Amino acid sequence: MKILYFAWLRSKIGVPTETVELPTEVSTAGDLVEWLKTRSPRHAEALANSKLVKVAVNQEHVPYDHPISATDEIALFPPVTGG
Amino acid sequence: MAIRVQAEDFDVGAEYAAFTVGRTSVGGVAMFVGLVRDIAGGAAVSAMTLEHYPGMTEKQLEAIGEEARRRWPLDDVLVIHRYGRLEPGDRIVMVATASAHRDAAFESCRFLMDWLKTKAPFWKLEATPEGERWVEAKETDDAAAARWAE
After folding, report:
1. Which of B59, B122, B125 lies closest to A82 in CB terms?
2. Which of A1, A41, B53, B136 lies 20 to 30 A from A18 at CA?
3. pLDDT tens string for chain A (83 positions)?
């Protein structure tokens, strides 16, 4: 699964994208955020406050209970600040 | 409906002219243009860099535009949003709505901006004398978007 990071999540984690092999127990957006925290101290720090970590699946905003699958395009980013 | 996400500046007068040409059923156009301010949260801002999520940005702006057209009787909608490095005074965003009557034009223009600020995947990085900082989302923006809940 390919994951994209934006804004300060990208700079804190240190890469704009990464490809991961999902364990079978990771089935929702929220599961993914929790699991990503275990990948490195940088991930853990960047993803610590879930209020500031938004998830998009296939370019749509989704809540943490949204299901995910290996073929989805997943992006993690802070609350948006455009306009 | 036209949605444009671009690094280049735009000419508001030319956009208005193109938006209305030949449209004699339109009774009014409402427009909003957002600019880069030179001060934010008490700090001087010398530049701002807008990052976005290519693909999702266009998809979300299209969806917001379609939602406006569903809610109000609009002849047309225009959204232009820039990305990249901008300086104080530069234009960031333009929204225009055209309708037979002013209420639909005014209301939908405000709706588009309120929804865009909470749904379109853009992030602002400000350059200040203390260094660069990412702009934090405002609760007032969430409240402004929530006003339009059906």
Report:
1. B122
2. B136
3. 999 999 999 999 999 999 999 999 999 999 999 999 999 999 999 999 999 999 999 999 999 999 999 999 999 999 999 99
Q: What is the largest CA-CA distance in chain A?
A: 39
Chain B: nearest CA to A35, how far in angstroms? 23
**Mind giving me the DSSP string for A41-58?**
HHHHHHTS-GGG-EEEET
Nearest CA in chain A to B80: A83
What is the residue range of A39's domain? Answer: 2-77
Q: What is the mean pLDDT of residues B100-120?
A: 97
Does the distance separating the beta carbons of A78 and B137 come in below 8 Å?
A: yes
Name the nearest CA neighbour of A83 among B79, B63, B12, B117: B117
The partner residue sitting opposite A6, judged by closest CB among B53, B55, B81, is B53
- Go through the domains of chain B in sequence order and give each one's CATH number: 2-19+26-146 (3.90.1170.40)
Which CATH number does the domain housing residue A64 bear?
Answer: 3.10.20.30
Q: For the segment B19-74, what is each residue's pLDDT rounded down to a tens digit?
A: 999 999 999 999 999 999 999 888 899 999 999 999 999 999 999 999 999 999 99
Following CA atoms B38, B139, B12, B46 in sequence, which dihedral angle do they give, to the nearest 10 degrees?
A: 20
Sequence-distant (≥ 6) Cβ neighbours of residue A7 within 8 angstroms: A77, A78, B51, B123, B125, B134
